[in-house]
Amino acid sequence: MADKGFNKKDESLVDLLVNTGMPKNVAKTLAFLRKKEETTSVEIEIMTALRQPEVSIAMQELRRRKWVIKRDIKKEGKGRPVHAYKLAIPFDKIIETLEKEERKRMESIEKNIDQLKALSLNP
């Protein structure tokens, strides 16, 4: 993934976020947002090499999780309104949330394995 605004660390971050089950477009958008105080969807598109609909869907997910705030920017003339985005909470808090979700998932997997073992002992 040789995206314009991404270095090796960013690419690794995206891969790790994807490993948690996060869609790649959401992971790329989140990785970019963590580096910016505030940005527009157009800048996200350019710097992440995502298309407008992909950024829009990623933003819907990030806003649903309450990780991103959207602000409308007043614009001269006609055309689509411009939106500015920024993280609603610090990035490390997002990582903490993902950690809790992953730990919960691991507990569920372990419980499932334990139940499988128990059932296999009593045919």
Strand order of the largest sheet: 1-3-2
Characterize the biggest β-sheet: 3 strands, antiparallel
Percentage of residues in helical conformation: 55-70%
CATH architecture of the largest domain: Orthogonal Bundle
The total domain count is 2
Total DSSP helices: 5
How would you concisely characterize the structure shown here?
The chain contains five helices and three strands, in the order H-H-E-H-H-E-E-H. Helix content is 60%, strand content 11%.
Task: Summarize the structure in words.
The chain is mainly alpha-helical and 123 residues long. It folds into 2 domains: 89 residues, Winged helix-like DNA-binding domain superfamily/Winged helix DNA-binding domain (Arc Repressor Mutant, subunit A, Orthogonal Bundle), CATH 1.10.10; 34 residues. The protein is built from 5 helices and 3 strands, in the order ααβααββα. The chain has a 3-stranded antiparallel β-sheet. Strand 2 and strand 3 form a beta hairpin.
Ordered list of secondary-structure elements with their pairings:
Elements: H1 8-19, H2 24-33, E1 39-40, H3 41-48, H4 52-64, E2 68-73, E3 82-87, H5 91-121
Antiparallel strand pairs: 1-3, 2-3
